[in-house]
User: What shape does this take?
Amino acid sequence: MSTSASARDHIPEIMRDLRRRYLPKGDLRDGNTALAKISTATEDPFRVLVGTILSQRTRDEMTEKATDQIFAAYADARALADADPADVERLIRPVGFYRQKAPQIQRVSRILVERYGGRVPSTYEELMALPQVGSKTANCVLVYGFGVPRIPVDTHVHRVSNRLGLVTAKTPEKTEAALMAAVPRRYWLAVNELFIEFGKDVCRPIRPRCEACSFRPFCWYFRTYVRRQAWWERRVRQAARATPPARGSKGQAGSSAR
Assistant: This one.
């Protein structure tokens, strides 16, 4: 796991450009991800926690729909802990793996009621002690629920960070540690939101829109793969143009036609 000095030098430029694109007002609550919208609508860490659990392997629009439905019926941890499991499944059905997630969010709710009076703890260590809460979920709750600077890393953040060359890491967990070591703390709150939007819009997993990216001069992926591929394709075309046609091919074709 490493971070190139050249990539670190461009972090202010990267963050400035992405803020201009996706958070022009500079407020995380103006973001377009499901968690940003949940945070804006309620400023409730419990909703952020449940929304993060529901968001796993699920599109943002389905996360929003399921979160709205479950909280329209059960407003807090105590109500959700005592809810009918079948009803919880029905309400969160828009998300993937809803049968597995329904008992998960109810179990978390019961523990919050038993240990914290229904409130969500505000430290990384306490959040990590909850069932079904990993590093990404804990960091999402801290960022979107409490405004605590952390860097949640999902597949988009992992991909964008490694493609740019900000980090060289094989797993999201290692990317998280490398980013927090490389990125100045003043940027942490916005990294998740901005990199997710950039990953959906430009730095896509398949067919990334490199032509629309202003980071090409220092992007590791562009310099290593895209530019090299373009060079190779030019060489192939040049070789094809320079290769004379097979001797006698036109004459043979003409004879057969006659």
User: Anything to note?
Assistant: Confidence is low (pLDDT under 50) at residues 1-5, 249-258. Residues 220-242 form the longest helix (23 residues). DSSP finds 15 helices and no strands in the chain.
